[in-house]
Amino acid sequence: MKNQLKESILEKRNSLTKEEIIGKSRKIQDNLFNLEQYKKFKTIMFFVSFNSEVNTHEMIKNALGNKTTVVPKVEQHEIEPSVIIDFDNLMPSKLGILEPIEAMKIAYKHIDLVLVPGIAFDMEGHRIGYGYGYYDKFLKKVPKAVKIGLCFDFQVVDKVPREEHDVPVDLVVTEKGIVECKK
Asked: Which domains are present in the chain?
């Protein structure tokens, strides 16, 4: 079931045009930036989008200078949060995802809000990721941070299969609005 759900959502997401991704991503950015949690927090960790994900590149550029902006750098199969000051200093990793060349580390406890990627999210905040477990491991290290999934509306489903190690998000932001996850 998990693989079928993953495949069907990825197929739908991959069929979006670049223009559709950019248009929907702008609406998601507006919804995110208008959230009280986003406005009040100073240190935000973004994921750097790739392929057909919600495009976070403009969000990151807009946050620079207003927020302490953090992105992941993968080191030894673990996410290391890294502060960035210039989006143009990011380079493609082995996986093809933009990340800092060198990590400018920040203590986990200073991260107020984490934006989480996913293939599917459910109404309780559980998600299907890419299967590497990087985010579940990382999210356990920032228990006090607000966790927000960013995705297109069709990626929100009633229920996703879950495992014991999964860490749910608190909210999901789509182009159509905000899902407050029921715990």
From this structure: 2-180 (3.40.50.10420)
